[in-house]
Each structure stands twice: as structure tokens, then as C-alpha cells.
Specification:
The complex is a heterodimer of chains A (802) and B (446). Chain A has 802 residues and is of the alpha+beta class. Chain A contains 39 helices and 10 strands. Chain A is elongated and about 115 Å long. Chain B is an alpha+beta fold. Chain B has 3 domains: 127 residues, Beta-Lactamase, CATH 3.30.450.60; 111 residues, Mu homology domain, subdomain B (Immunoglobulin-like); 105 residues, Mu homology domain, subdomain B (Immunoglobulin-like). Helix content of chain B is 23%, strand content 40%. Chain B is built from 9 helices and 23 strands. In chain B, a hairpin with a 5-residue loop joins strand 1 and strand 2. The radius of gyration of chain B is 26 Å and the shape is globular. Chain B starts with a strand and ends with a strand. The chains are: A alpha+beta (802), B alpha+beta (446). Chains A and B meet through helix 2 of A and strand 17 of B. Chain A: Keywords: Coated pit, Cytoplasmic vesicle, Endocytosis, Golgi apparatus, Membrane, Protein transport, Transport. Chain A: It is a peripheral membrane protein.
Chain lengths: 802, 446
């Protein structure tokens, strides 16, 4: 602000001090109103004002605007100021339009014209003012208006360096606000790239930012910048800090330019040209070397600048991921930082190490620091650093050190912050499964995990435990044993009860011979926890009891008593009630052989991607990028919904109350009929299937307990099949009549009769059928049967033909 | 149950803070300052609820008075209390200003202790308060005075102590009315009402009983009926009396609602429609009333606004006085709003002084006095800065004045004083009656 002393605006100062002295808001408003009228008087069309006055009043308007009042005039005067030849006036004009940009188009055209004049002027100060303004308020319109002017400024030989610098930044800004309206000719590409070689470091720094943005838009067009960037980098790195007078920051030569160049290089793969490549490696080597040198200053700025360059270099090394020596050196360097006193440095070191751990070259090197990282986990005061340490441990884990790391993480879990516990639980579960040599060890870990941090164990974790147990027959008895032992603890977490309940239900027989865990003891132990559990767990336990009836017929009576108990049989929870009723009936009706079939041991689950990884990714979207290098993780074929499905099949019998679409069999369908029409007893599961034409075998209606389609009658002439699908109380049926003979069956008629009460209990609606069936052919009759009430008798079909 | 009372200066500094209940925390003082006094947007509501605490406030000349309550209390009661408090403070030390509040803070705390007890308002009669809260400092009170004070505070007639004696028994009655009007451009009355108060200043000895008569429609009708009955029964007819009744019958007014000072015996008013009371000593407000019918509007404003192009506007305003030529209106001020994009105003007026006040965006035309049935005119040329953004919404022209009659037609018919013990008769007391009509919100659209 030169020339300012000559024409200090006294009126403005007085006005501002007046406003500041106002005692109340009303007084302020009055003063402003007065001033506005005054300014309006001055700005009247017929009056002529000199530049100084205009500037003063525009300033006042600006001040009033900044106080939060609306300004609806004075734009014209401000735009007039733009065309002034005095720096101060021009500056105020630019300030005004940058702060109060009027959206009216005619004004905008005028402003753009003025800016264009300034950009084309010879005075670099004016050009800079204009560029600054464009950078501040630049929008689509301006981007199109100046799409040629600014690159020309940037690339022409006779513009001075500060203008170039501004032009580069202005262009960057326009590119950010409206990339689509900024059309850059390809002829400028080479010139813009060559700015990297500019004598003036400031221009180069500004240009790197611009090129970085342009590279992201069209990487191929700007490929040439790699060589230039490498050479520029090597020139900076190899020179002494005394070479750059203005651009040395606390003994570090041009740190910002270095960082930006390194970042620019991360947009491309490692250079193909061996000479360039070796030069780049040299640079990185030098940077790593410099980090070993003693500090030249005790000031924090010095170390900050040095470390910034170093970290960016390490990022580049990780990005290239091809020089094992560099990677190892970087790793060692980071290892040193792990013990640094600066918390930020430790954080960054851990973060970079996480990336290093995923590279095959440096994985081993990272593992050397396991001890330090574990120490960091234990002693670190900053929670974010601890979180990074956990991430790193997870990343560096492999088969050799899994046992130690999992053990350490488990120990830490007990004292960990609540915010990271769930994530840690997932990580422990994944690691212990992934690197488990001995699945007994895995089970130990998992049960311990549930014991320590039960609240943070999500559904997926314990589903997974069960999947593993079911799929591995060698650990099943061990699993039953330790689950039983875990259950003996006085206070059990609910997740533990779920796991134990499931495992004992499946494999309780494997430990039943032991006197310490006879069937009765197992049952009593489980049942002692029953009343403390939530309804979902209770229903799971009911299924377990049912399985016990199959496994240990000797305690059947006992279990039936439990099922019959009011709290289950008449539970207010529909799910529990339904299970209790159905299981009880099942145990009463079915023979042991049928029971054995129904309650068979679960078949192994199909091996899929562990849902835990999916879950972990959901929890931490950040992880995704890191995990991308592991092919096994990136697949997204499985949905998390798989898991509840597993659980359902595991429970095996009707969860269907909630999920009607998953009905497995007629049994279920009829069941739902019962429960929906609210009848307590559920006896007649049978479908009407008596046939009265010729002497026939009456098929056991009970087979519909398990199937929803079957042949209900068959002889040499005829086959009758039925298929049903129930939604709530309506059964949609299809009868299939098959002609087994070699001649036509004619005069066919079917008639379903409902005897006595059945009439009021069922409602039939069947479509008529064709009177003939061709030889070896089948006809279909479909219809619906609506259940109005509970029924006991069976409807009869009369089928006649000639 | 008022939890506390705070007084702030215009900057939001606390001058007085008195907390009566424990449910009001220390931060309540700051909460009000932050959310109301220093609020970005000026608060337009008299009651603000901050963190489940209600703040009731009024502002008097840069001083904020705020009552705080945690419970759900009667807001009207709180505002009545706040206004009463302002009255009391004014009668103790005059104008309410930061300076005065600071100088009298001991007195204010003393008053606050007396007029609120655990948040419940107590006796707030200035006359009574002045008997035991004095500004003279501590002086020994005689036993007699003490009993007087006690009986005054606890007795049946709490507003008047016994044994008052004056050499001259004198009383003053002021009928003060404020006229509110909204008139359309064409001179059609859109809404109007008068809010009036009867203020009495009594200097009477003993315990006088007063009877007050007004020209209220109901009372007047009652009376004429009685009178007719009596004239029918007895031929002893008083001619003056009958003429007064006939004249008053014509001008009887309909009072929409009214309220009385606590000294008025409401039971008598209910049954006989007569206002009888034992007045407190000194000044008090005897009654308040409101009327909406048959209001004689003292002034009429006729505006004429012409917009000439986008940069010029012409305004012509005619004021007509509409009352008896013998009377004179005073302190007349007409405020004509100007558009916000005004840059210059040329004024020409026949009478008084007119000025464009740019700080308030208005032309202010003042006349010291104006006789009845007269007319005056102002013309203004307003130059505008072209502005296509918003249209000016033309706020109404407002007016202030003072006239020496009651625009509602309210008349005091009699005020009789009876004092049986001391034996001075009604005719010996000197009575003064004065009528003042003021402007309330007196607006004409333009």
C-alpha cells in the first residue's frame, strides 16, 4: 500500500470511529442510515466525483457491508474505480467487487472487460491485482473469458516472474472451480511443463501445484513432466542450502517445492527410463541420507521441514514399491521415528509403516519393529497413535508372529479405549483365524476374546466361530469341552452363552461321557443362564434343548417340562412361544428316528470369504485402500446378509415367522396358519389326502410335514401329485393328474368334499379341469385353500374317470 | 414465582442482580446477556426461553429489566410487576438511567427485598413503601410510627394510613387518553381505539370516602331511569339537575372494559355501578379504560404521493385539526417515511419546521401548536437513486400530538368526598379536573 500516506481517508476513519462509539444497535443503524443517504447524495448521477472521493465512499460502503447491512448501490462507482490509474483506487475497486460480487450480468460483463484491460496492461502490479481478483471470485463465466489470456501470460517469455506465479495459481483456482469450462490448448502443455525448469523457484512451486491438478485431469498429456520433475528434484536435493537464498527455509532448500514434486511423481508409475530412474533413486537416497545428518538447528521449523520432505519421499518410495533397498532404508528410518519424542512424528511413522508392511520387500523389515510397536501400544498416551499402532500390528502380522501379536492385542484389549475396541475385536478375530495353525488355539483365543470384550463382539464374530467349528470336525469335541468350561464361569457374556449353547447343542454328546459334563449337568448349566438372556438368545437355547432331546433321550422328560413351562409355552414373545410349542409337539409326536433326521448335526458351511473382513471394511472405509493390495480382501461377492442366513439354517426350524419367503416346507406353512389364526394347539399338520376312487394306498399325510410337494396317490393308471405354497392362512395348491396309460382318460371329474365342520373351517376355490387327459400326459388344476379355523378332519378328493 | 430480577445497562453489564430462588443458577445472568442483549438478531419477543428458563424483560432508556423464572408463571403478572417496579423506582429517584441505578443500588436492593418475597410479589404501593423505606438513612422510628407502619401493611386498608391531616383538602383528577388510529389512504378508518387512565392526586384529611361519577352509558342510563322515577313520584323537580342529565345522556360513552385501583370497592361497582373508594394519599391511578366507539379524531392527515420516474418522488401532506376552534393542540409532530434509496429531499411547509432525518429515513415535521378547525400543508420533493432491486413498501405516516380534551368523550360528572369523623363537607374540598388527549399509534397509510 504505497501512496497511502498522501491520501489517508479521514472521512472513513471518522465514520468508523463513530460506529465504534455507538452505544446501541439502534444508534449504529441511525448512523449508517445517515451515511448511506450521504453517499447516495454523492453518487447521484449528475455529480462528478474525483477518484479519491469515490474510493472513500466505496470504502465506507464496504465497511457497512461488512457490518452486515445490505448494499444495493455503488457497484458502478466501484467498477469505475477499476479503470483508475492509481494503484490505491484500483485496489479498493478490486477489493469491493471481490467482497460484494453482484450477480447481475451486465455488471459482470463490465467487470470482466475491466479485468481483461488490466491483464493486458503493461503494469505488472495491475496484472497481479486482476489475477488475484479472478482467483478470488473466478467462476464459470470468468474461466471461459480468460481461458486464453491467463495461459498466455503464464507461458509468454516477457512476463516477469511474480506475474507468472500469480497466473499459475489463478489458473489452478479456475481449474478447481470449473474444470469443464477451462479449455487449455495442447500447444501450451509443453510450455507449462517447462515451467518446472524455470529459473525462479517461486514460479516452479506455483507451476507444480497447477501441473499436479492438470495431471490428475489428463495424465497422459502431461507425462513429460516426470523427467523434468526428477531433474529439478535432484538439483534441489543435491545442492547445498546456501544456493537458494530466498527459498531456503531453516536450512532446508525449498521444502515446499520438494514436497510438491514428490507428490507430483506419485501420480505416475516409476519412470521407465533407467537413467531417470537411477537419478530419482539417487535423489531419494540423498533425502534418506540427509535425514541421518545431525540437525542444523534446534528450531522446530527446521526439523518439520526436513521431515515433511522425508515423509513425502517415503510415500513416493512406497508408491513405486520396487526398490527393496530404499524400502528397507525407509523402514529403518521410520523405526527411528517410532522412538521420537514428537507425537505427530510417531503417528506419521506408524501410518507410513502400515503402508510399508503391505509391500513384499519391506514386510520383513517392518517386522523387526514389532517390539517397538507393541511398546507404543502399551505406553502411548495419544489414542490416535495407539490406533495407528493397532493398524500396523494388523498389517505386519503373518504366520510367524501371529501368535505373539494376537496375544499382545488381546492383552491390550482389556485396557483399550472403547472407541477402538470393536475394531480391535474384529482384527483379532480375523488374524487368529487367518494365521491359525492349530484351531484349538483359535478357539481358545476366540473364547477369551468373547470373555474379555463380549460387548464389542459383533454378530459376525461369533457366527464365524461357529462356522469354523462346524466345518472342522477335528476340533469339535475340544470346542464342546472349552465351551462347557467357559460356561462354568459365574458371569458369562451373552455372546458366550450363544456360542456355548450352539456348540453344546451340536456336539454336547462328544463330552457327555465325562462325568463332569454329563447331559444333565450340561443342560442344567445352560438352563441356569437361560433366564438372564435376551429373547433371541433364549430362542437359540430352545433349539439347543431340542437338539439335546435328540442327543440325550434320557433327559427328554426334563426338557419337555421346561418347554411346557408357562414362561416358554405362554411366553409373550411370539418367537419363543412358537418354538416352545412346536418343539414340544415335535418331541411328543415324532419317533426317535425322525427326530434324529430332523435334528441332525449341521452340515459344513460352504467356504466363503470371511464376513469379518467385510465388516471391518464397513467399519473403516479407510482400510479399503490399504487392503486393495490383498486380492482376497477386495472381492465383494459376499453380502453380509449371508451370515444371518447361516444362523437361520443353523437354527434349522422356523425363523420363518419373520421371513415368510423362506418357508421350507408344508409343516411350516401350516404352522404359520396356526399361529396367525391364534390357535394354541398345533396338531393337524396333515394335508387332506384321502382318495376314494379305487382301492388305494393312503399316503401318510405326515410327509407334508417336511415337504411342500409330493405324490399323494399312485397306481398303474394314474398319478396324482400336489404342490402347495402358503402365505399366511391361504394355501395356494396345484394338483397334477398324470395319465400313465396309453389311452385317453375321459370324463374326468374331481371333487373335493369337506365333511361336517370342515365346511366352516376351510374354504376351497379350485378352477375346473379339462375333461380328458392325453396318454402319458399330465394336467394341472390350481386353486386356493383358505384356512378359516383350526381343523382336524381331512378333506377328501373324489376323482373319477372312464 | 419470579426466580430473580436482573438489571443490565445497554452494554449488558449487570447493575443489579437479585436471586430469590435456588432454581436460578449463576449462569442465568450471562444466558440472558448472550442470547438477548448481545444477540445477532434483535429479539422481538418480550419473553425468551433459554435452557428451560423464562426471561421476561422490558427496556427503559438503555436499561434492561429482566425477571427470570424457572416455573410456568403468569406472564402478565410478571410484566405488571416489572412495570410497577419501574414506577416505584421513578418515584424514588426520578428518571431511570444507568447513573441513577448505580447511585441508588442500595435502595433498589432494599426495595427488591420488600416487594418480592421468595418470588411472590408483595405490597408495591409507592405511598406505603415510602413510609418505611426512606432515602434519608437510618433514623429511629417511634413506637407510634411503627404501629402505623404495621397496621398499614397488615391492616384492611393497606394503602392508607390513619391520622393524615391537611389544612387544605384538595384533589386533582387527570384524565389522560391515548388515541390509536390506522387510517387508509382514502381517509377510511381501519381501526381505532382509545386507552385512557384516570390519575388522582389526593391531599385529603382523615379517611375520606369518595364517590366518582362518569358518563358511562350504563351508569347514566341507570341514573336517568332513577331520575325519571323520582320526577314522576315527586313534583319537587330540580331544573339544573334534569338539564345535566339530559346533556350527559347525549354524550354518554360506551366503555369496552375498565379496571380499577385496589381501593375501589368492586362489590359496589357490580351492584350499583357506582365507583366508591377510600383513596390512598398522594398520586395513584384510579382507573384504566378502553373505548372503541364514537371517537372524535383530533387530527386528520391527507397524504398525496406521486412517483415521477425512477429518480423522483413528490409528497404532499395536509393536516387538518378537527376540534373546537377555542382549543389548541400542542407538540404536533408528523413523521413521513422516505424510501431507503433517498439521496436528497427538498421541503416546503406553511407552518412549523420540517426536516429530513436521514438517520431515520423519514421527514419530521414539527409544529408547536395548532388551533382547532385549521389546516396546514407540507410538500416535499424526494430525489432517489435508481434501484431496481426491491420495491418500497410505503410504511404509514405517523403523528404525535397533545390536545386538551378527551377524544373518547369521557367526562367526569362528579367526585364527592365524605368524611364523617372530621366533618369537612364535600363543598369544602377543592377539586381540579384536567383532560389530556395524546396520540398513541396514530397512523395514516400513504
Amino acid at each position: 500500500m504505497r501512496n497511502m500516506r498522501g491520501d489517508a481517508m479521514r472521512g472513513l476513519a471518522v465514520f468508523i470511529s463513530d460506529i465504534r462509539n455507538c452505544k446501541s444497535r439502534e444508534a449504529e443503524l441511525r448512523r449508517i442510515n445517515k451515511e448511506l443517504t450521504n453517499i447516495r447524495q454523492r453518487f447521484r448521477a449528475d455529480k462528478t466525483l474525483d477518484g479519491y472521493q469515490k474510493k472513500k465512499y466505496v470504502c465506507k460502503l464496504l465497511f457497512i457491508f461488512l457490518l452486515g447491512h445490505d448494499i444495493d448501490f455503488g457497484y458502478m462507482e466501484a467498477v469505475n474505480l477499476l479503470s483508475s490509474n492509481k494503484y490505491t483506487e484500483k485496489q479498493i475497486g478490486y477489493l469491493f467487487i471481490s467482497v460484494i460480487m453482484n450477480s447481475s450480468t451486465e455488471m459482470k460483463q463490465l467487470i470482466i472487460q475491466n479485468i481483461r484491460n488490466d491483464i493486458q496492461s503493461r503494469n505488472p502490479i495491475f496484472i497481479n491485482l486482476a489475477l488475484q481478483c479472478v482467483a478470488n471470485i473466478g467462476d464459470k463465466e470468468m474461466a471461459t473469458a480468460f481461458t486464453h489470456e491467463i495461459p498466455r501470460l503464464l507461458t509468454s517469455g516477457d512476463t516477469i516472474d511474480p506475474v507468472k506465479q500469480s497466473a499459475a495459481l489463478c489458473l489452478l483456482r479456475l481449474h478447481r472451480t470449473s474444470p469443464e469450462s477451462l479449455q487449455l490448448n495442447t500447444e501450451w502443455t509443453a510450455r507449462i511443463i517447462h515451467l518446472l525448469n524455470d529459473q525462479h523457484l517461486g514460479v516452479a512451486t506455483a507451476a507444480v501445484s497447477l501441473i499436479d491438478a492438470l495431471v490428475k485431469r489428463s495424465p497422459d498429456e502431461y507425462k513429460g513432466c516426470v523427467n523434468l520433475a526428477v531433474s529439478r528434484l535432484s538439483r534441489i536435493v543435491t545442492s547445498s542450502y546456501t544456493d537458494f537464498q530466498d527459498y531456503t527455509y531453516y536450512f532446508v532448500p525449498a521444502p515446499w517445492l520438494c514436497v510438491k514434486l514428490l507428490r507430483l511423481l506419485q501420480n505416475y508409475p516409476p519412470p521407465d527410463d533407467p537413467s531417470v530412474r537411477s537419478r530419482l533413486n539417487e535423489c531419494l537416497d540423498t533425502i534418506l541420507n540427509k535425514a541421518q545428518e545431525p540437525l542444523k538447528s534446534k528450531k522446530v521449523q527446521h526439523s518439520n521441514a526436513r521431515n515433511a520432505v522425508l515423509f513425502e519421499a517415503i510415500n513416493l518410495i512406497i508408491h513405486m514399491d520396487c526398490e527393496s533397498s530404499l524400502l528397507v532404508r525407509a523402514c529403518n528410518q521410520l523405526g527411528q521415528f517410532l522412538q521420537n519424542r514428537e507425537t505427530n512424528l510417531r503417528y506419521l511413522a506408524l501410518e507410513s509403516m502400515c503402508l510399508l508392511a503391505t509391500s513384499e520387500f519391506s514386510h520383513e523389515a517392518v517386522k523387526k519393529h514389532q517390539e517397538t510397536v507393541i511398546n507404543a501400544l502399551k505406553s502411548e498416551r495419544d489414542v490416535s497413535v495407539r490406533q495407528r499402532a493397532v493398524d500396523l500390528l494388523y498389517a505386519m502380522c503373518d504366520r510367524s508372529n501371529a501368535e505373539d501379536i494376537v496375544q499382545e492385542m488381546l492383552t491390550y484389549l482389556e485396557t483399550a479405549d472403547y472407541t477402538i475396541r470393536e475394531e480391535m475385536v474384529l482384527k483379532i478375530a480375523i488374524l487368529s483365524e487367518k494365521y491359525a495353525v492349530d484351531y484349538k488355539w483359535y478357539l481358545d483365543i476366540m473364547l477369551k476374546l468373547i470373555r474379555i470384550a463380549g460387548d464389542f463382539v459383533s454378530e459376525e464374530v461369533w457366527y464365524r466361530v461357529i462356522q469354523v467349528v462346524v466345518n472342522r470336525s477335528d476340533v469339535q469335541s475340544y470346542a464342546a469341552k472349552i465351551a462347557f468350561e467357559a460356561l462354568q464361569a459365574p458371569a458369562c457374556h451373552e455372546n458366550m452363552i450363544k456360542v456355548a449353547g450352539y456348540i453344546l447343542g451340536e456336539y454336547g454328546n462328544l463330552i457327555a461321557l465325562d462325568l463332569r459334563s454329563t447331559p444333565m449337568i450340561q443342560f442344567d448349566l445352560l438352563h441356569s443362564k437361560y433366564h438372564l438372556c435376551s429373547p433371541t438368545t433364549r430362542s437359540l437355547l430352545l433349539s439347543t434343548y431340542m437338539k439335546f432331546i435328540n442327543l440325550f433321550p434320557e433327559i427328554k422328560q426334563h426338557i419337555q417340562d421346561v418347554l411346557r413351562h408357562d414362561s416358554n409355552y405362554r411366553s409373550s414373545d411370539v418367537e419363543i412361544q412358537q418354538r416352545a410349542i412346536e418343539y414340544l409337539r415335535l418331541s411328543e409326536i415324532c419317533s426317535p428316528t425322525v427326530l434324529a433326521t430332523v435334528l441332525e448335526i449341521m452340515p459344513p458351511y460352504p467356504e466363503k470369504q470371511s464376513p469379518l473382513l467385510v465388516r471391518l471394511k464397513q467399519k473403516k472405509p479407510l482400510m479399503e485402500a490399504e487392503n486393495n493390495s490383498e486380492p482376497s480382501v477386495t472381492t465383494t461377492t459376499t453380502h453380509t446378509e449371508d451370515v444371518p442366513k447361516f444362523a437361520e439354517t443353523a437354527i434349522h426350524l422356523n425363523q420363518q415367522q419373520q421371513q415368510q419367503q423362506q418357508q421350507n416346507g408344508l409343516l411350516v406353512s401350516f404352522d404359520t396358519i396356526e399361529s396367525n389364526t391364534h390357535f394354541g394347539e398345533s396338531t393337524s399338520y396333515s394335508l387332506p389326502s384321502t382318495i376314494t376312487t379305487t382301492e388305494t394306498t393312503i399316503q401318510s399325510s405326515k410327509k407334508f410335514l417336511f415337504k411342500n410337494s409330493d405324490i399323494i396317490f399312485e397306481n398303474d393308471l394314474l398319478q396324482i401329485g400336489i404342490k402347495g405354497e402358503a402365505t399366511k392362512h391361504i394355501l395356494r395348491v396345484e394338483f397334477y393328474y398324470g395319465n400313465k396309460t396309453n389311452f385317453n382318460l375321459t370324463n374326468i371329474s374331481t371333487n373335493i368334499t369337506l365333511l361336517d365342520e370342515l365346511e366352516s373351517e376351510l374354504r376351497l376355490n379350485l378352477e375346473p379341469i379339462k375333461p380328458t387327459i392325453d396318454p402319458k400326459a399330465q394336467i394341472k388344476q390350481s386353486g386356493t385353500i383358505e384356512c378359516l379355523q383350526e381343523f382336524r378332519d381331512l378333506p377328501k378328493i373324489n376323482f373319477s374317470f372312464l | 414465582m419470579i426466580g430473580g430480577v436482573f438489571i443490565y445497562n445497554h452494554k449488558g453489564e449487570v447493575l443489579i442482580s437479585r436471586v430469590y430462588r435456588d432454581d436460578i443458577g449463576r449462569n442465568a445472568v450471562d444466558a440472558f446477556r448472550v442470547n438477548v442483549i448481545h444477540a445477532r438478531q434483535q429479539s422481538r419477543f418480550p419473553v425468551v426461553n433459554i435452557a428451560r428458563t423464562s426471561f421476561f424483560y422490558t427496556k427503559r432508556s438503555n436499561i434492561w429489566l429482566c425477571a427470570v423464572a424457572k416455573q410456568n408463571i403468569n406472564a402478565a403478572m410478571v410484566f405488571e410487576f416489572l412495570n410497577k417496579m419501574i414506577d416505584i423506582m421513578q418515584s424514588y429517584f426520578g428518571k431511570i438511567s444507568e447513573e441513577n441505578v448505580k447511585n441508588n443500588f442500595v435502595l433498589i436492593y432494599e426495595l427488591l427485598d420488600e416487594i418480592l418475597d421468595f418470588g411472590y410479589p408483595q405490597n408495591s404501593d409507592t405511598g406505603v413503601l415510602k413510609t418505611f423505606i426512606t432515602q434519608q438513612g437510618v433514623r429511629p422510628i417511634t413506637r407510634e410510627e411503627q404501629t402505623n407502619v404495621t397496621s398499614a401493611v397488615t391492616g384492611q386498608i393497606g394503602w392508607r394510613r390513619e391520622g393524615i391531616k391537611y389544612r387544605r383538602n384538595e384533589l386533582f383528577l387527570d384524565v389522560i387518553e391515548s388515541v390509536n388510529l390506522l387510517m387508509s389512504q382514502q381517509g377510511q378508518v381501519l381501526s381505532t381505539h382509545v386507552a385512557g387512565r384516570v390519575v388522582m392526586k389526593s391531599y385529603l384529611s382523615g379517611m375520606p370516602e369518595c364517590k366518582f361519577g362518569i358518563n358511562d352509558k350504563i351508569t347514566v342510563e341507570n341514573r336517568t331511569k332513577n331520575q325519571l322515577d323520582s320526577t314522576n313520584s315527586t313534583n319537587n323537580n330540580n331544573p339544573t339537575n334534569s338539564t345535566t342529565t339530559t346533556t350527559t345522556t347525549k354524550t354518554a360513552i360506551a366503555i369496552d372494559d375498565c379496571q380499577f385501583h385496589q381501593c375501589v370497592k368492586l362489590s359496589k361497582f357490580e351492584s350499583e355501578h357506582s365507583i366508591s373508594f377510600i383513596p390512598p394519599d398522594g398520586e395513584f391511578e384510579l382507573m384504566r379504560y378502553r373505548t372503541t366507539k364514537d371517537i372524535s379524531l383530533p387530527f386528520r392527515v391527507i397524504p398525496l404521493v406521486r412517483e415521477i420516474g425512477r429518480t423522483k418522488m413528490e409528497v404532499k401532506v395536509v393536516v387538518k385539526s378537527n376540534f373546537k376552534p377555542t382549543l389548541i393542540g400542542q407538540k404536533i409532530e408528523i413523521r413521513i417515511p422516505t424510501p431507503p434509496n433517498t439521496c436528497d429531499v427538498q421541503l416546503l411547509c406553511m407552518k412549523g419546521k420540517a426536516k429530513h432525518k436521514s438517520s431515520e429515513n423519514a421527514i419530521v415535521w414539527k409544529m408547536k401548536r395548532m388551533g382547532g378547525m385549521k389546516e396546514s400543508q407540507l410538500s416535499a420533493e424526494i430525489e432517489l437513486l435508481p434501484n431496481d432491486k426491491k420495491k418500497w413498501n410505503r410504511p404509514p405516516i405517523s403523528m404525535n400530538f397533545e390536545v386538551p380534551f378527551a377524544p373518547s368523550g369521557f367526562k367526569v360528572r362528579y367526585l364527592k368526598v365524605f368524611e364523617h369523623k372530621l366533618n369537612y363537607s364535600d363543598s369544602e374540598t377543592i377539586k381540579w379536573v384536567r383532560y389530556i388527549g395524546k396520540s398513541g399509534l396514530y397512523e395514516t397509510r400513504c
